[in-house]
Specification:
single chain; alpha/beta
Length: 454
């Protein structure tokens, strides 16, 4: 199997979109820190060290090889050891400041590579790669860096760059720029022509991730079709996949693809929503909450956003209820003790969704639950640490009380609304936020008018 023929058969070519590029002097100063952990190997081998040597030749990377000995039995990807894997990886990332951590694990005559990043299962995650996404390659090609196929080196390079969580604008530009160059190299390299077909689904899955990472924010049908072709090719060879979690990852990326399309392509929106939801739910059958809870929970979080967007299009209240259900599923996994910031985000979004349902159904009980969720959010977002965000939550709670008071001619609800609006106004005035202060003053005035009419 020649990788170049695979790429050409699936139309993997760099898009002709204009790419924001950094000035050369700026780009040279942006290097992403990559930590290659000594591979878990059953034979004497320098496979991890050799990969680190190969990656050190790649533009935009600062590569470090970690040799400190520790038990790596958790790398079997079994659900019972998954928490140990995530915790150890996060510990290494925290200690070293790595942007991407690379795990390697020998499985028979193959090496399996996985990529871990900080915030991999958080709202701020801006990458498509799961820790469970696995790239299987022949162990023999890692024996000598000088004979390592360049196309496989670039595939791993692309997998690293696409795994990056880069919220900083200059880093996002650098990531996009490097992906463009990598895709160009991959589409013109025939150095892995002897690789067996058994590796095909894993390679095509990562090619899909790489190209999706490159084109996710563009609104072109051509890009959408390229990623779809790559993932479909992986799916057509699912008989070669021995572990069902890898099939789940492919369905997960199909969901991400249609999710992006629903936001980026301004036509056929309803089918995109439907397909995204279908594929996400299919992925959850393989990545269940009892075996791989983080992936299941993160998919639930994504599903909630899709159902909310669908409600905005169709005004179907059941979609809002489905959005709440999926947030509750995510809430069970991303708990207050283990994921405080993400938990607070979930609480805020639950407050928003439940306040909408409460308003649409004029339900005091649902509105009360929405208020409780907002107050839960304030366990993390405090007035002292994040005064503006705290004030926004106070305003949201005030809005719920205002609508309850207005709809039910209830003075006590309106008085509660006044209290929350005044709290928010106090913060806005202290921070000299003129527009916010004016908006809150108007709300307070309306509240007083209603109270005076009762």
């Amino acid at each position: 199997m020649g990788i170049v023929s695979l790429l050409k058969n699936t139309f993997l070519q760099p898009a002709n979109a204009d790419v924001l590029e950094l000035p050369p002097e700026t780009a040279l100063n942006i290097n992403f820190k990559i930590l290659v952990v000594e591979f878990a190997d059953t034979v004497e081998s320098n496979s991890g060290e050799n990969l680190a040597k190969i990656l050190k030749t790649k533009e935009g990377l600062s590569v470090y090889y970690f040799t400190e000995a520790f038990n790596k039995s958790f790398l079997n990807l079994e659900s019972r050891t998954l928490f140990d894997l995530i915790d150890k990886g996060q510990d290494l990332i925290d200690k070293t400041g790595a942007d991407v951590l690379i795990w390697g694990y020998r499985d028979g005559d193959k090496i399996r590579i996985n990529f871990q990043t900080s915030l991999q299962y958080e709202k701020r995650d801006c990458a498509f790669t799961s820790l469970l996404d696995s790239l299987y390659l022949p162990a023999s090609i890692f024996n000598e860096p000088t004979t390592f196929p360049s196309s496989i080196g670039n595939l791993i390079y692309g997998a690293i760059i696409s795994s990056l969580n880069t919220p900083i604008k200059t880093q996002k530009i650098q990531k996009h720029y490097l992906l463009k160059k990598i895709i160009s190299k991959l589409s013109n390299d025939d150095s892995a022509k002897s690789l067996s077909i058994e590796y095909l689904p894993y390679i095509m899955n990562f090619l899909g991730i790489i190209y999706l990472s490159y084109c996710a924010e563009q609104n072109k049908d051509k890009d959408f079709k390229i990623v779809k072709n790559l993932l479909e090719t992986a799916l057509k060879h699912q008989d070669l996949i021995k572990d069902p979690i890898h099939l789940g990852c492919i369905y997960y990326h199909f969901g991400q693809l249609y999710d992006c399309a629903s936001r980026q392509l301004n036509k056929r929106v309803a089918p995109f929503y439907k397909n995204a939801i279908t594929y996400y739910q299919l992925a959850q059958k393989y990545l269940s909450k009892y075996t791989y809870p983080y992936d299941y929970g993160f998919i639930s979080y994504k599903l909630s956003g899709l159902y909310y967007d669908y409600w905005r299009q169709k005004e179907d209240i059941q979609a809002l209820r489905d959005a709440v259900f999926n947030l509750r599923e995510a809430e069970k996994i991303f708990t207050y003790t283990q994921f405080p910031e993400f938990w607070a985000t979930i609480q805020g979004e639950l407050g928003r969704l439940l306040s909408l349902i409460g308003s649409l159904t004029n339900s005091e009980d649902i509105s009360g639950v929405a208020i409780s969720c907002y107050k839960n959010q304030q366990k993390i977002i405090t007035e002292k640490r994040e005064p503006l965000e705290w004030a926004n939550i106070q305003e949201n709670i005030g809005e719920i009380y205002y609508h309850l008071g207005k709809n039910n001619d209830d003075r006590s609800f309106l008085e509660d609304a006044l209290e929350y609006f005044h709290d928010a106004l106090y913060i806005s005035e202290n921070m000299s936020l003129e527009d916010e202060s004016k908006r809150l003053t108007v709300k307070i005035s309306k509240c007083n008018q209603l109270i005076n009419m009762l």
